[in-house]
Amino acid sequence: MDIKKEKILLGVITLLLVLVAVLATLVVLRYRPIAVIEPIGIEDVKDEKPSRDKVNSRDKVSDDVAPVFFSTMTHLEGGWDFVEKKESMFDDQANKLRIAMDYAEQYDAILTFESEMPFSRAMVQWGDNVFQEALDRGMGIGTHCDITPRSDFSDEEIIDEISQRKELVDAVVDSSENLGCAGAGGMSDWYEGMVGAGFKYIDGVVGFHYLALPLSERPDGWDDKSIFDEYYHNASPADPDKKYYPFRIGRVGFTEDPTGDLVVSAGDIGEISSIGDLALSGSGDWQAECGTSCAIDMADVDAIDAAIRSFVETRDTSRVAKLQVYIATTKYEDPGIELFFERMQVLQDEGVIQWASQKQVYDAFVQWENR
After folding, report:
1. Minimum mean pLDDT among 13-27, 118-132, 256-270, 344-358: which range?
2. What is the DSSP letter of 210?
3. In whole numbers, what is the pLDDT of the chain averaged over residues?
4. Mean pLDDT within 327-344
5. Across 17-34, average pLDDT
6. What is the CA radius of gyration of the chain?
7. d(Cα 84, Cα 76) in Å, to the nearest integer?
8. Could you give the C-alpha distances from 286 to 187, 292, 341, in angstroms and in order?
9. Is the distance from CB of 52 to CB of 91 less than 8 angstroms?
10. For the whole model, what pTM was predicted?
11. Which one of 30, 175, 308, 332 is CB 3.0 to 4.6 Å from 100, fit for a cystine?
């Protein structure tokens, strides 16, 4: 082989060796661990884990934020002697409650029915325990203490008056379900009456309840005459820091006492078919001029929605809160009632409110204060 050919062959071999070396280098780089070729600083970022507080921040907020409950009151009134005199009249009212429960089941709502003596006796008399049915269907029940506010009973007398009403409801349901009474406000010591009768909470708190208090513990201008003439059914307590937050008292009035034996569970927005008219007029009344003939319309539903959202925006999230509306039995046959249930379902689905019976609110409050 001449020298020229020898040099060419040597060049080809050298080139092949270089190509092999390049390929070998590529293979090594291809299968090298990524961490070796990552830019400086990447490992530090990758290994930094969020703190436990950051990971669970949403859960922590949920644990700290107390619920906003939404309840109702429907009263079977003290003047309803007709339900005892005629079975058909009782059946009419019982049917209205069943219509209410049908709506509640359809829209995931929880209603509360509270009975005075005539309807309680009539349930036994006519053999139709609609209150036990209400409990079986997931609703709440209670007592309505429709006691004349002008009577100044002794402590023993007011205990007896309230006990009579409680015992009649206890006769149709387990007494453990009947822990609260709506009403009983007046000149008598309603705290002693409630506690003495065995009640644990009071709802349906109105202007009448201030009659038992000295002027120094009433809102300005709320003397007896003004209460009877104007403020008798105004939602109370007047203090918004207490109106919408259940709290415990140890004597008649609205002075908070964590060691007391009665929970004040107020939160009233108003009568369902009047709220829209009153919102438009700016009135602080409980019922519009149309009274029981008012129809439920979209203005009422919008006003209830607005009241709830306005409260939720500024509320104390550390405290259990409750809002409620009053719904007479006749309103369950009002076509507009479905507008109300539809809107409340939206608010519950959005997490703005949580439906609850009056007793469920009490139970949640006790759980909260013992947390």
Report:
1. 13-27
2. G
3. 85
4. 97
5. 44
6. 34
7. 12
8. 21, 12, 21
9. no
10. 0.81
11. 332
For residue 301, give the nearest of 321, 266, 283, 327 by alpha carbon.
327
Q: What whole-number distance in Å separates Cα of residue 37 and Cα of residue 161?
A: 87
- Per the DSSP assignment, residues forming a β-bridge with 68 are 321
Q: Are 246 and 320 in contact (CB under 8 A)?
A: yes
Sign of the C-alpha dihedral, residues 123, 125, 128, 129? positive
Distance (Å, whole) CA 121 – CA 172: 9
Among 68-82, 207-221, 289-303, 305-319, the least confident range: 289-303
Q: Which residues are CB-contacts of 43 (< 8 A; sequence separation ≥ 6)? A: 35
Tokens at 153, concatenated = 């009973």
Paired tokens of 52: 């436990």
Range scoring the smallest mean pLDDT among 9-18, 70-79, 167-176, 333-342: 9-18
Is residue 202 within 8 A of residue 252, CB to CB? The reply is no
Q: Which tokens in the block code for residue 199?
A: 């009640």
State the number of CA atoms in the 13 A half-sphere of 348 facing the CB. 17
d(C-alpha 221, C-alpha 210), whole Å: 12
- Tracing tokens 């949403």 back to the chain, one arrives at 58
Tell me, what amino acid is at 139? M
Are the CB atoms for 142 and 169 separated by under 8 Å?
yes
Q: What percent of the chain has pLDDT over 90?
A: 75
How far is it, in rounded angstroms, from Cα 369 to Cα 156? Answer: 30
Quickly tell me which residue has 């325990």 as its tokens: 129
Per-residue confidence at 367, pLDDT binned at 50, 70, 90?
very high
* Distance, CA of 74 to CA of 330 (rounded, Å): 10
Q: Spell out the residues 6+ positions from residue 188 whose beta carbon is closer than 8 angstroms to its own.
A: 147, 151, 152, 153, 154, 157, 158, 212
